[in-house]
Hints:
Number of helices of chain B: 3
Order of helices and strands of chain A: HHHEEEEHE
Number of strands of chain B: 2
Number of strands of chain A: 5
Largest interface: A-B, 56 and 42 residues
Low-confidence stretches of chain A: none
Radius of gyration of chain B: 20 Å
Helix content of chain B: 40-55%
Order of helices and strands of chain B: HEHEH
Strand order of the largest sheet of chain A: 4-3-2-5
Structural class of chain A: alpha+beta
Distance between the termini of chain B: 65 Å
Radius of gyration of chain A: 18 Å
Largest sheet of chain B: none
Largest sheet of chain A: 4 strands, mixed
Oligomer: heterodimer
Low-confidence stretches of chain B: 1-7
Strand content of chain A: 15-25%
Mean pLDDT of chain A: 86
Helix content of chain A: 25-40%
Amino acid sequence: MEPGCKLNTNRVGQQVNATEYRRMIGCLRYPLHSRPDLSYSVGVCSRFMEKPTVMHAKAVKQILRYLKATFDFGHVYVQGGSADKLEGYSDSDYGADTVERSSIGGMAFYLNENLITWCSQKQKTVSLSSYESEFMAATGAAKQALWLRNLMSESTREKPKAMTLFVDN
Amino acid sequence: MNNPVFHGMSKHIDLKYHFIRECIERGQIVVKRVGTEEQKADVLTKPMSAIKLSVMCHMIGVRNLSVCQA
């Protein structure tokens, strides 16, 4: 999606075939399992499945074009290094959702510099400041981090180590 | 102060706030600051221009596999 592209529940715009739109979104959700770069834009577009208009269809079409151009893209996992270097990143965009004014939080976890799990979600609570939305994203990441940390110690049978979480605020 | 909605919301955030602080106190998590250039979760939260997106893709480990195999 282009920077500054704000989708809203455009009530005056010309409506498009909702079934077709939902079908496209449904198909786009499959590549999300291996393409974290798509997860934001598809996530935003899938919020307007009820009454899609030309504006939303254009955004989906742009995603499809991007997907066509980057069809061969995928994750690269690099071998070697220490196997227990687990790092997390959390970020948020305050007030990104123009409809409900809620923020969008994202997190990504890396095991030895390889991306293993990620998430891009609209936050359920409306936050009053960017600090607050950043904090909520960080807490969500912390919960995921604890789970991953326990999973790691279970599989390696070693004592769990402290995990680093990178926050940009 | 007596507004239940406000109270519920602030209470909720308080709980979250204490949770991450407890994790740090217990030594389970170390929180560090990271600049926007190295923030690997940036691509998950905002729309990006083509150039920045390609840089971010490379950073998070999404590469062109046909080039990698060649």
